[in-house]
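so my prof wants the structure for this chain in the tokens format not the other one, which i didnt know existed until like an hour ago. anyway here's the sequence
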Amino acid sequence: MATIAEQIRAFEEKRAALVAANEAIITKSAEDGTTLDEEQEEQFDGNQADIDAIDKHLKRLRLAEKTMKEKAVPAVGGNADDAIVSRGGERIVVKAQPKLKPGMEFARLAKVRAVQRMEPYQSPLDIAAKMYGENSNVYGHIKATVAAGTSVTGNWAAALVGDESDAFADFAEYLRPRTILGRFGMEGMPSLRNVPFRQRLISQTGAGAAYWTGEGKPKGLTAFDFSSRTLEPLKAATIAVLSMENVRDSSPSSDAIVRDQLVAALAARLDTDFIDPTKTASNGVSPASITNGAQAIAATTYTDADDVRLDIRSVMQYFINANNPPATGVWIMSQGNALALSLITNGLGQPEFPGVGINGGTFAGLPVITSEYVGTYVVLVNASDIYLADEGGIEVDMSTEASLEMLDGGFTQNQPTGASLVSLWQNNLVGLRAERTINWSRRRTSAVTYLTNVAWGGAVNSS
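here's what i got, hopefully its the right format
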């Protein structure tokens, strides 16, 4: 009999296949420019009915799984948070693990692998035990990896297969909330329009027209203008170089160094290139920012709250004139401008814009994302009008044998930089590389507009 976890996994795989089948039906219909025929309708509706039934059953299975976990018996003589569970007649003691900060699991796993490459005579399992102990999550991840070759359904290690990928997902979780992109779709924030890579996206660029026609007179013709595009997978990447002594150190501070170097670099690149109006597209390398080529409006020189309200009207009117009201509008501004708005008061000392604060909130009835990468711009984006293709994961690799050009800001791809190559092996260094595959594009021209040189609240005393 399959375990509940195995049933959940099987139904999730079946659901994914049904969703993919329906997506293929819709895609074919769009390419043909037709509605669904009778056979396609029957197949689509049947798949959807199965999906709905699976969703209901998965809810029941997860509830049953949760109930079984709550009934786990405390381990005799162990920690109060430890428990004994049964699987296939085998009693297993599950040790409670301290909850680590986001990204720590990834950092620890990466360091164990790095040490194993430097000391190939040691097994990664022994290294994990020495650095973090046999009860650590990292030890369990490595153990699952050793058994990956036989991790088919029913194998004793099948439940551990996803644990290593969870460590990488943990890294992505740490990255996303700290980027502008990661805030969309979270905590009530409108979502960007997610699309797959290399999927044909069709846009209407011109409207047709109709005409009054007299009795017995010929009817007028019209034409529509369309364009199509695809979002190709593009990569944002970074390499962090650390000493072997640092990697061997299993202290929390060392874990944080590995995590923070990679996260900070990717976060800065994605935030800057997503919002900077000067960022143009580089064919096959990187996308243009959502503000590049969008409507720019010079902010009013600030004297009082009325000037802010005029700026709001100017931005909103652009969307109204384009027949594209920002139903999923989101403001993106610096924490400095958000703070300034929260401090503006009327003659009675009451806040003029009470919904907004240094960490966001609402402004003019729309949610706010704050990021210092936006600078003196204030951007209003209609979230549903931004295409986002995102694999949602981080690809990580490391090397102790490569030679690197130890250069950052002056690095130019496909051209010699003049910097000397540094051997990681010769200098006892480890290079950790992280990549994220992502791309974005405006769905229509009127998706974004922004204010320039915004200084709401007036100048700041910097002396």
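also thought this was worth mentioning. The chain is about 35% helix and 20% strand.
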